From TrEMBL:
Keyword Transmembrane helix carried by entry: no
Gene coding for it: argF
Family note: Belongs to the aspartate/ornithine carbamoyltransferase superfamily. OTCase family.
Entry binding sites for L-ornithine: N160, D224, S228, M229
Domain Aspartate/ornithine carbamoyltransferase Asp/Orn-binding: residue ranges: 148-303
Source organism (scientific name): Clostridium tanneri
Record keywords, A-Z: Cytoplasm, Transferase
Gene3D superfamilies: Aspartate/ornithine carbamoyltransferase (3.40.50.1370)
Protein's recorded name: Ornithine carbamoyltransferase
Subcellular location: Cytoplasm
HAMAP family linked to this entry: OTCase (MF_01109)
Reactions that this protein is recorded to catalyse: carbamoyl phosphate + L-ornithine = L-citrulline + phosphate + H(+)
PROSITE patterns to which the protein is assigned, alphabetical: CARBAMOYLTRANSFERASE (PS00097)
Assigned EC number: 2.1.3.3
Length: 306
């Protein structure tokens, strides 16, 4: 593993290794055991979109591992003025030890990884959000003591988070049902390649337009915003289309009794999820947000710590 671009590119073993290292680093942090695994290493963090969790957890994680993180807003670096990905990749590879990038076009991240001699970590593209799903898997594992054989139901927009969940579940042997409205389904190629991944673990992948069908017997209910970054102009139309896909108390009660609720955040209460669910006793959203830190520290330790 040189980069973290997509969970599709990782083996089941590599995903479990990240989760194992994350658990260990979390335990050690809670018990005051300090680390200097990344002493002297620098991570460049390129952002062309907003972020709270990704930015803070990478920066803090790097500091906790003894390294340094550099925030590179696309407004301030020449990439934002048209310098090529090729030149940016080559130049940054001469200065720093790893790059985390959050941007729009997924192919830009693939190109950055292709032209960089240092590890590249995908901090979200329009297509995928692998770091999020590593934290999600860690959270589910902590609360259910297993991943294989569980069922996750994703209800809402067939977006970047849904895509990474498809790969993540397929790789660890967790069944996943995705309920989206017509026209907002997951990317066809992602669904097909996740189904290929699932053949190796026996995970079942179902796509439907029916949220009730999706949540039946689910151990985990997951949703995300109906309006992702870059879709602000479609807000009114999307809110109207997605109304039937709200995760509210009624829908949540149709899952297993001990089902847990996840949301990558930021959340919009009253739209994709009601307060009753996200602020209710079965919601794990803040454990999930915390686990971004631990999961990404594991990714950085494994990629940059060599
Ligand atoms: N979940 C997530 O990636 O949050 P941010 O957009 O705040 O980084
Ligand atoms: N789907 C959302 C995730 C935010 C973390 C977006 O892309 O804006």
């Amino acid at each position: 593993m040189k980069d973290l671009i997509s969970l599709h590119y990782l083996s089941t073993g590599e995903i479990f290794e990240i989760l194992k290292v994350a658990e260990k680093l979390k335990y050690e942090l809670k018990n005051g055991i300090a680390h200097n695994i990344l002493k002297g290493k620098t991570l460049g963090m390129i952002f062309t979109k907003s972020s709270t969790r990704t930015r803070v957890s990478f920066e803090v994680g790097m500091a906790q591992l003894g390294g340094y993180a550099l925030f590179l807003s696309s407004n301030d670096i020449q990439l934002g003025r048209g310098e090529t990905i090729y030149d940016t990749a080559n130049v940054l590879s001469r200065y720093i030890d790893g790059i985390m990038i959050r941007t729009y076009k997924h192919s830009d991240v693939e190109d950055l990884a292709k032209y960089s001699s240092i590890p590249v970590i995908n901090g979200l593209t329009d297509l995928l959000h692998p770091c999020q799903v590593l934290a999600d898997l860690l959270t589910i594992y902590e609360h259910k003591s297993k991943l294989e054989g569980l069922k996750l139901a994703y209800v809402g927009d067939g977006n970047n988070v849904a895509h990474s969940l498809l790969y993540g579940c397929a790789k660890v042997g967790m069944d996943i049902s995705v309920a989206t409205p017509k026209g907002y389904q997951c990317n066809f190629d992602v669904v097909e390649s996740a189904k290929e991944d699932a053949k190796l673990t026996g995970a079942k992948i179902v796509t439907t337009e029916d949220p009730v069908e999706a949540v039946k017997d689910a151990d985990v209910i997951y949703t995300d915003t109906w309006v992702s970054m870059g879709q602000e102009d479609e807000k009114k139309e999307r809110i109207n289309i997605f109304k039937q896909y709200q995760v509210n108390g009624k829908l949540f009660s149709m899952a297993k009794e001990d089902a847990v609720f996840l949301h990558c955040l930021p959340a919009y209460r009253g739209l994709e999820v009601t307060e009753e669910v996200i602020d209710g006793p079965q919601s794990l959203v803040f454990d999930e947000a915390e686990n971004r830190l631990h999961a990404q520290k594991a990714v950085m330790a494994l990629l940059l710590g060599k």
